[in-house]
Amino acid sequence: MGNNIKLVIFDLDGTLVDAYEAIIKSVNFTLGKMSYPEASGLMIRRAVGWGDKKLLGFFVKEEDIESALVVYRRHHRLSLKSSTKLLPYADEILQYLTENGFKIAIASNRPTEFTDIILSHFKIKKYFNYVLCADKLARGKPHPEILLKIIKKLKVRPSEVVYVGDMAIDVQTAQAAGVRGIAVSGGSSSLAQLKKARPFKILKSLAFLKKFLPPISA
Questions:
Q1: Which of 113, 129, 110 is nearest to 121 (CA)?
Q2: 13-66: per-residue pLDDT in tens?
Q3: All domains of the chain in start order, with CATH
């Protein structure tokens, strides 16, 4: 990839943090409160990545979604802090990128409120030049709007950008925006799904990202 990359945009869930336990707890709490059967962790995990409204839409009737959102969000504000983990090498790679001249941003389908809770809880908000979530836009991923707005805000060209995510939807978003997409395996999408999406690279962990992003000043 070389030294032409100036901006690294990250997805959040499954890429920088593991919030699956928090999400599973909040979904099943909501389902219980609304007299729906409990969902398996695997089912919930596979439904993550499209925003909380679509997430709940997999498990409750359409007419119950708005009520479910109220219950879910109230519970999730608490479960996020107690049951979310920073993924291995996340802090290390963010520090590396900052120290070596890269701009860093987040593009997430997670609501802004919950993104802020996570970034503040793990004290990593300081690393980001810009954070944009789908609830601030008319269209979420895989529409490229979220990446294009970040690119415009931080005044770089698409050719100078890489988007790092854990799902096929992240790869599709990168391709739609004309930027290179790097997939990190182990998140919501299976390895087969990631390969089918044809990202620029598939990495086993964030630790390997440095290899493709040498210091800008080098």
A1: 113
A2: 999 999 999 999 999 999 999 999 999 999 998 888 788 999 999 999 999 999
A3: 2-18+85-212 (3.40.50.1000), 20-83 (1.10.150)
N- to C-terminal Cα separation, the chain: 14
Contact indicator for 215, 102 with CB cutoff of 8 Å: no
14-51 b/e with 16+ CB inside 10 Å = b? Answer: bbbbbbbebbbbbbbbbbeebebeebeeeebbebbbbb
- Bridge partners, 106 (sequence order): 10, 131
Q: Cα(9)–Cα(144) distance, rounded to whole angstroms?
A: 13
More confident residue, 48 or 196: 196
Residue 1 pLDDT: 59
**Token representation of residue 213:** 């992003």
Q: Is the pTM of the predicted complex or chain greater than 0.85?
A: yes
Q: What's the rounded mean pLDDT across residues 69-77?
A: 96
Q: Largest Cα–Cα distance in the chain? A: 59
